[in-house]
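Entry for the shared binder. Reason: the reviewer on the internal report wants the predicted structure included alongside the sequence.
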Amino acid sequence: MLRSKLSLRNFSFVIFVLGIIYQLFHFSSPFIDEALYINAGKRIQNGMYLYDGYSSWFNGSPFIWPLLSSIIHEYLGLVGSRLFSSAFTFITLIYFWKLTNKLFNKSIADWSLLLLCSNFYVVSFAFIAVYDSMALCFFIMGFYYFQFETAKSKKLSAFLISISIFVKYAFLGMIPILIMHTLVTKRYKHFWKTLLYIGWLTLPYFYFIRGGFLSSYGAADWSPDRFAILIMLANFLKDSLILCSFGLVLIFIKKENKRYGVFFILSLIMWPTFHILFQNNTSAHKHIVYGFFISFPLIGILFDKLALKKKVLAFSLFVLTFLYQISLFKNSDYIWPNFNTGFEYLNENYQNGEVIFSTKPEHVQYHLKLYKHKSCDLILNDWCIEQTQMKVCNTNWVVINRYKWDKQQVLVDEIINCGFTLESKTSSKLKVVKDIFSFIEVNHQLEIYKKTK
């Protein structure tokens, strides 16, 4: 029996590793945040920290993930930075199993891990070289030690959760997880001591270094309305929410572990609710994963109960779920457009000292490796144009990430009149949510213009 459980756990990790390997062979150009953080780390290494003022506008300490990721990138490239992120998710999976085993038992922990490791959004989340995986890793580790009553475990829990907040400030939004868990377990003294330790560790940083608490998190200019965000999130969550709901119903029917049932469901929908309330769809496909690492024991309970009475049904349901998750991997090539060809052209033809205007300057910086220059010296965006009062027509190159066709056509018309010609155009497909059950393809283009007159 023990061997069977161990093999199921090991099989789960094999599935996760295979998912990472699949993405290695479907390599794409860097996600905008990947490029931004690697650039930031390189610029910090070159003494540009004070000029850029990252502490005032980054949603995490620039000295943790950006610096570490850029060092890895220096020796192993983007693949190395992405595998570095995957390693943190792997550790998170280990602690997720330990946490579920602590709350329930090994069988439920094994099933929960199996469903988590085979989830498309979890594997995709793991392979993006951004600070979310590192922050989530430290939070889940801290939440695991939060289950113990000793003074040492309280301090360790607070320390690990504080690191997760330093890595990504938005993890202050995970404090409600601790609050809900405390209400379920009624260990109030345990909670207040941990919260006090977290306050001692984090508040001085935000007051003296950050210079404030958090910047505003509101609706982005490009966000759709709340109903469209709801449809998008329903598309991402539909299978996990259905399985968790069955697990919740089973808990109430069996009258076992009822105190955790509502806690898990609330944890699953907490971050999606934030996105809807604040009307912000940015990175929603990443943030739903936070809830998975808390709520998936509900699915483990469902499969564990099925396996005890109808093992064939349990494995058949898993196979169907697994095949559905595999089908989603065809969308992994479309999460972010692959513009490597266009940037290679720019890299080969750009001359030192030439000025570039870009609608996505982070990618230009990343590909040209202009880490030693000030942000607005050579690579301009709308903000730089406004601050320096320089005109786009006075630049040497214009790089347009074409997705807002009407708005950007005005820019194209302007630069053509100034003597720019189209030198390179790279097309890539993106998949965006159409409704709860399907996606549609959207054409995305990178256009590179050079001033020739």
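Summary line for the report: The chain has two domains: 2-332, 340-451.
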